[in-house]
């Protein structure tokens, strides 16, 4: 309640000074005027719906980061100019641009074993759980996804009622805790999984192996954010830290992983099943590729999470330092799938720092088929980058379970902002591709992206990285891949 004290004190001062002006000296109007004006401003903050921080912090919310406006928020995601430093990158425009596509491109997700394929948008909501986010934030993201016809990843916290109420297309993420479909022994409850996967809102299922913010570390939801609602959804004690184990218990080898994916697809009625990971050792993903070849099975999609991913709750010691950055991870996964002849069968998603149309096109050039955004979607729903996600005291009502704070987040308004952000970002990506002479993502090549490697020296991605030919790893791997390919074992990670 301390957040409302400034408004209350100003209102009391206004009442006292106005009374004194009427009953005593007219000089009191010098104090009553500003106090009344501030009271009106604070009351307006309290009832307006557009700015969550002002709604939660009347008067004082105007003094924080949110009040700095578009310039500060733009600076948070703005890259340095393409000529400002070594390592900067730029896309190559064409002297013969084309008209932008009228309809935003979509990507068909679903391999030969999939009977219910899904058309994925170029930009979607990345994995963010109910618990990590408030119910209102989850609902706003879902309604925004429904308005814009793109997908929302549930995060590993499970398929909550708030995700379903949003009405959008859902990618149900299952992590090592198997929240929402966990059996008594800690494994997967197949019957419950099948029942939930059959829901029409669930379009795909993503099996999380690791995440960019903390690969190999599992996940932690602080007890301060484990409300009664969250505890019920996850089937955990209220107010106690929820710790997801670092590894799955349903499989322990690449071969077992592929067999588990196939069983998930069957239980889900033929809906697309994919995996999500932050790439570490290249030979480990090659081991998964060897298992694909050995079993004749493959996931329908692979989401590559960059080490630079994560929200304000990401552990500072590992974020950006553990696992491959998104660029290298995408190039590795794309090349591995091409090299074993399975790239046409498996779609690749990219997540980790995606925020602008330039980011979307860049990731498509690097090997992705579509992208996911978490941080940018949080900004769209009202996040002010306060860095308090782990405390339960988010001033914008986005990353908290405190009902007095979440009341400031107006779902309908934020849903429109989410839809508008996604629509305009994809439109920007389509315009950029058109300026490059490309109408569809399939026309992009590594030559379309150039990096400055030294003053006066630039090289395209076609020259910076080695790009394998289809089936090249099977025919005879190049020297740079040979040792990892030989070390890859379908029956062992690492």
What can be said about the biggest beta sheet?
Answer: 8 strands, parallel
Give the count of helical stretches: 18
Helix share of residues? Answer: 25-40%
Decide which structural class fits the backbone: alpha/beta
What does the oligomeric state look like here?
single chain
Whole-number tally of structural domains: 2
What is the CA-based Rg, rounded? 25 Å
CATH H-level homologous superfamily name of the largest domain? Aldolase class I
* Arithmetic mean pLDDT: 88
Shape assignment: globular
End-to-end gap: 52 Å
Unreliable residue stretches: 65-79
CATH architecture of the largest domain: Alpha-Beta Barrel
Q: What's the count of strands? A: 15
Name of the CATH class of the largest domain: Alpha Beta
Strand content: 5-15%
Q: Major sheet: order of its strands?
A: 4-13-12-11-10-7-6-5
CATH topology of the largest domain: TIM Barrel
Molecular structure report:
One of its GO terms (biological process) is glutamate biosynthetic process. There is one protein chain. By secondary structure, this protein is of the alpha/beta class. The chain folds into two domains: 2-77, no CATH class; 90-487, TIM Barrel, CATH 3.20.20.70. The protein is built from 18 helices and 15 strands. The strands form four sheets. An eight-stranded parallel β-sheet has the order 4-13-12-11-10-7-6-5. Strands 1-14-15 form a three-stranded antiparallel β-sheet.
């Amino acid at each position: 309640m301390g957040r409302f004290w400034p408004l209350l004190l100003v209102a009391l001062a206004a009442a006292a000074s106005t009374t004194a002006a009427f009953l005593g000296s007219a000089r009191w109007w010098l104090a009553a005027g500003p106090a009344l004006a501030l009271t009106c401003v604070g009351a307006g903050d309290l009832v307006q719906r557009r700015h969550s921080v002002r709604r939660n912090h009347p008067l004082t919310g105007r003094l924080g980061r949110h009040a700095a406006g578009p310039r500060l928020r733009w600076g948070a995601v703005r890259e340095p100019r393409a000529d400002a430093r070594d390592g900067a990158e730029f896309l190559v425009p064409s002297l013969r641009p084309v008209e932008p596509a009228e309809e935003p491109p979509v990507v068909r997700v679903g391999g030969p074993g999939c009977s219910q394929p899904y058309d994925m948008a170029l930009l979607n909501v990345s994995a963010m759980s109910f618990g990590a986010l408030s119910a209102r934030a989850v609902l706003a993201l879902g309604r925004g996804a429904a308005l814009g016809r793109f997908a929302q990843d549930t995060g590993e916290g499970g398929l909550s009622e708030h995700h379903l109420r949003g009405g959008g297309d859902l990618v149900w993420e299952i992590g090592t805790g198997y929240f929402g479909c966990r059996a008594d022994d800690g494994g997967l409850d197949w019957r419950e999984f099948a029942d939930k996967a059959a829901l029409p809102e669930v379009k795909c299922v993503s099996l999380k192996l690791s995440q960019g913010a903390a690969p190999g570390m599992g996940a932690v939801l602080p007890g301060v954010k484990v409300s009664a609602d969250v505890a019920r959804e996850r089937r955990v004690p209220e107010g106690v830290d929820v710790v997801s184990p670092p590894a799955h218990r349903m499989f322990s080898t690449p071969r077992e992983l592929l067999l588990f994916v196939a069983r998930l697809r069957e239980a889900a009625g033929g809906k697309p099943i994919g995996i999500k990971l932050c790439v570490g050792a290249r030979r480990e993903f090659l081991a998964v590729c060897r298992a694909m070849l050995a079993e004749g099975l493959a996931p329908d999609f692979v989401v590559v999470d960059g080490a630079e991913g994560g929200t304000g709750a990401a552990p500072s010691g590992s974020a950006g330092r553990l696992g491959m950055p998104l660029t290298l991870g995408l190039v590795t996964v794309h090349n591995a799938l091409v090299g074993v002849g399975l790239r046409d069968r498996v779609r690749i998603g990219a997540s980790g720092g995606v925020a602008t149309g330039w980011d979307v096109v860049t990731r498509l050039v690097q090997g992705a088929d579509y992208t996911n955004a978490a941080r940018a979607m949080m900004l769209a729903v009202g996040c002010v980058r306060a860095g308090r996600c782990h405390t339960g005291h988010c001033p914008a009502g986005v990353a908290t379970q405190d009902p007095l704070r979440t009341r400031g987040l107006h779902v309908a308004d934020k849903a429109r902002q989410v839809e508008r952000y996604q629509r305009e970002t994809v439109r920007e990506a389509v315009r950029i591709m058109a300026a490059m002479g490309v109408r569809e993502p399939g026309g992009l090549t590594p030559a379309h992206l150039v990096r400055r490697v030294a003053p006066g020296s630039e090289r395209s991605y076609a020259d910076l990285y080695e790009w394998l030919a289809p089936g090249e790893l099977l025919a005879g791997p190049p020297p740079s891949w040979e040792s990892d390919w030989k070390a890859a074992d379908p029956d062992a990670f690492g």
